[in-house]
Amino acid sequence: MKRLQKCCRSKKTLTLADVLKLVYPGADQSDILKLLRAVQEKTALEKELDPLGRVAELKQREEETTQWSSWFEQMWPYWDSDGNGELDEFEFKTVVRDIGASPADADTFFEEIDLDGSGFISKEEFREWWIGKGNCTSAINLQSRKH
Ligand SMILES: [Ca+2]
Ligand SMILES: [Ca+2]
């Protein structure tokens, strides 16, 4: 009876140490402790450094931005067909088509992007607008769905 109680109790409180003992039958108490400490330290360290999983999120965003930037650099000379370094309203129509937005939104976007109201969109204005939108693709998809 006592044995059974003991067994039940140990089953109820099956710890990581018990599991480790099963996995590493040859390990002695100090090995188990070392393993436990390693597991705990790793978890504590991860939680301390990145409690909400932000690092992964930022990394992904950074990757997306990098991908977008290289695409943008490739597209820019093509969009800026007269090569003056800025986009006029005519050139911008191609951009609108290429980013998959509705042509009906072209004027709205142009005004939004042309921050200094020069009538031309500079590379910096475009980049700022795009990155400022966060995930711009979904923002545009939402915009165009209205029409
Ligand atoms: Ca141009
Ligand atoms: Ca401008």
UniProtKB/TrEMBL annotation:
<protein>
    <recommendedName>
        <fullName>EF-hand domain-containing protein</fullName>
    </recommendedName>
</protein>
<keyword id="KW-0106">Calcium</keyword>
<dbReference type="GO" id="GO:0005509">
    <property type="term" value="F:calcium ion binding"/>
</dbReference>
<dbReference type="InterPro" id="IPR002048">
    <property type="entry name" value="EF_hand_dom"/>
</dbReference>
<dbReference type="Pfam" id="PF13499">
    <property type="entry name" value="EF-hand_7"/>
</dbReference>
<dbReference type="InterPro" id="IPR018247">
    <property type="entry name" value="EF_Hand_1_Ca_BS"/>
</dbReference>
<dbReference type="InterPro" id="IPR011992">
    <property type="entry name" value="EF-hand-dom_pair"/>
</dbReference>
<feature type="domain" description="EF-hand">
    <location>
        <begin position="101"/>
        <end position="136"/>
    </location>
</feature>
